[in-house]
Amino acid sequence: MYDYEVMVEHPTIALSRTFTYTSSKPVQPGCRVFVPFGPQKLTGLVIKPAQNPDTPRKKIKEILKVLDDQPVLDQEQMDLAARMAYQTVSPMMAMIHVMLPNALDARTTKPEFAYEFWVRKAEQTAKSMQTDQIVPIEGQPALMAEASADGQTSQPAAGSRKKLTPLLEETLQAMPEEMTLKAAKEQFSDYRINSLVKQGFLIKEKRILNHGTLPRRPLQPWPELNVYQKNALEAIHQAQQQVVLLHGVTGSGKTEVFFHLAKEALDKGKQVLILVPEISLTPMMEERIASRFDVDVYACHSRLSDSEMVSVWKNLEQAGPCIVIGTRKSVFLPLRNLGLIIMDEEHDTSYKQDKAPRYHARDAAMLRAKAHECKLILASATPSLDSYARAMKGVYGLAEIPVRASGHDARIRLVDLKRAQTYCNYSSDLIQGVTKRLALEQKSMILLNRRGYLPTVRCQACHEFLRCPECNVPLSYHKGEHALVCHVCGKRYPMVDTCPYCGSGPLSHTGQGTERLEEESAALFPTARIVRMDHDTTRTKGAHGRLLAEFAQNGDILMGTQMIAKGLDYHDITLCGILSIDSILSRPDYLASERAYQLAEQAAGRSGRGDKPGEVIIQTFNPDHFVLQCILRHAYKAFFRREMSFRHAGNYPPYVYLATVIIRHEDPERAYAKALEVKAGLEKENLEVLGPAEITLRARQSRYRLIIKSKEDGHLIDALWKCALWFEKNASKCRMDINVHPMNLEE
Ligand code: ADP
Ligand code: ZN
Ligand code: ZN
């Protein structure tokens, strides 16, 4: 018999440990199994062979079933899961769920792969084409292949071959050695390809979809690095630290620098992982990478279907040198030979998962860099205060690129909304700016902050807002689908005609949605071609890429929420307007200034990237705010110093480590009482605890939030584990959400 330590799938933190099971056959660590657990049958993961288990032999139960032939996770990934589970105070199996593609989820025993058909030239055929001598002999089994009805790989069949018609001959010559059936048919017509398959010149094969590998593109020349970029590259080479912060103003050519690093890693036969915060950035980055590198490039993000995702995963397990570009979750991909990790826009909040387990991809990236002994490059024009402070202390290396590659900065102007004339949210300065760009056939970008612009619906009789019954926040009206949407829980409700509170009406729309803004902008600029990008227009797969392509080809104005502020690189955008930055600046959160600075600087970075100078217009009621004054001068360091002094005074990160604990229950008194108990427990651990503060309802539950501060991260996490274990026994039907190092206090 073989004994194993198995981690079972159970939501309880107390059970996040291994149990000993036995098996008559050997099982590899990293394979999933079914095991009996009390009266239940649970999925588990084999962690390692058990050495002299202290459980009495007759109590050790047998593994019921082994679900995998091959491990789904290797040792490094399992260690990573364990470590990330510890850091986020969550069960290890919850972390493993995040890592694995859905199709390899515990209950799925047979992952469904995605397939596609390929055609490749029959080998001998190719020869005969070249020499033009070999004439098939009648009756000899040879090159013939027939498309089988079931679409499986066609086998060469016996039979004679007719001479190819000139048309087919020409088609065959023009074809590459192999291509997908779909592409072949599109390029050459169904008829020609079918004929070539029938006559055995092409062999049709069903292959696991090599999804994620992008089509190869014609390679573009590499620009020579300017002196600042060369210095930064050198600083990265010289850095002793494993983690290096690459701080370069927007458009300074950071991407070019990390392309050089990627090339070096690939030349050594290693793999490169490039993390980006949002899918909107993947198509742009994909294109740039594919036109520079002659290796397999995989793209990995949440819009892949389950079967596509599992194909990427399976392909990567075997992959040689390659580049993977992807969002948060890609940090867990089975890359066995990493040589470099790049985290672009490292400050971005989308790197942190906002539901349990609340992990930050940066922490996982650090662990992976350590395991693979490779560098992790954190790149940003507006580094998080945490990262910049670490670089200042020498914990991270630091490389800086102080100027734009194009040589000129965008000119920034503030428009004081207290004085300016506005029409439909546009100040006359901004209207003039856009009009001028339209005349010059240059592009503009208009940015609005979603929170400030949700169109709400209000009863004109009782003046109540229509609210989400679950969350108690005002619902926003989506005209396109004539529905009310809650932006906290995401629930959709049909639009109503009468007020649900007083039964009368009429209902009036307030606020400003991106949709309405688009209509108004269309009225203001009737000749402009406007492309709107927000969560509504980009919900379908591929929508990002399509909208961006549309804008690149013939758009005049790109309009949208902050998703358009990041990473876009279009040379002909020369104006960027921010309709109001105040809603971010005034957020009741210690991170408000940092967020506002990041948004404005990123948005500014979209303008004037080419050889035409760019301009940025920021509308605000607070032009004297220090954040805006720093933005005016692109003075990150001044902003950093000033903001650090606020953080120091308020005892906020990076001067302390922070966590939040939220206690919820339908009965507010019960939730509050429990929160007090939790607070008392944490204070016994010598932690500073703020709260309980009541925050917004979620799923009809009252919520109370504690903010916990500690000088020492390990102590904070250990105390939270204790707290979680205590809570499981003393919950009194309350629920608890722990967020270690939150990036957003008002969840
Ligand atoms: P960042 O990533 O810092 O925002 P990018 O790498 O996207 O900057 O570069 C901004 C623009 O400048 C891109 O269009 C890029 O092609 C161009 N660029 C960057 N480095 C150079 C260089 N050394 N020579 C010429 N053009 C460059
Ligand atoms: Zn009413
Ligand atoms: Zn809701």
Overall residue-averaged pLDDT value: 85
Domains, number: 5
Q: Give me the CATH fold name of the largest domain.
A: Rossmann fold
Number of helices: 21
Shape: globular
CATH homologous superfamily assignment of the largest domain: P-loop containing nucleotide triphosphate hydrolases
Strand content: 15-25%
Distance between the termini: 50 Å
Query: What is the β-strand count?
Result: 33
Please give the share of residues in helix: 25-40%
Q: Which structural class matches the secondary elements?
A: alpha/beta
Strand arrangement, major sheet: 12-13-11-14-15-10-16
CATH top level class name of the largest domain = Alpha Beta
The main β sheet shows up as: 7 strands, parallel
Can you list the ligands bound to this structure? Answer: adenosine-5'-diphosphate, zinc ion
Uncertain segments are 125-160
Q: Any idea what the CATH architecture of the largest domain is?
A: 3-Layer(aba) Sandwich
- The protein's oligomeric status is single chain
Radius of gyration: 29 Å
Description of the molecule:
The structure is a single chain. The protein is α/β, with parallel strands linked by helices. The protein folds into five domains: 2-104, GIY-YIG endonuclease, CATH 3.40.1440.60; 115-208, no CATH class; 227-251 and 273-301 and 323-401, Rossmann fold (3-Layer(aba) Sandwich), CATH 3.40.50; 411-451 and 513-650, Rossmann fold (3-Layer(aba) Sandwich); 657-740, Ribosomal protein S10 (Alpha-Beta Plaits, 2-Layer Sandwich), CATH 3.30.70. 31% of the residues lie in helices and 24% in strands. The chain contains 21 helices and 33 strands. The strands form eight sheets. The protein has a seven-stranded parallel β-sheet, with helices on both faces. Helix 5 (181-188) packs across helix 6 (190-198), helix 7 (227-238) crosses helix 8 and helix 17 (592-604) packs parallel to helix 18 (626-632). The radius of gyration is 29 Å and the shape is globular. 44% of the residues are buried. Mean pLDDT is 85; it is low at 125-160. The site of one zinc ion (ZN) has 8 residues, from loops. The site of one zinc ion has 8 residues, from loops.
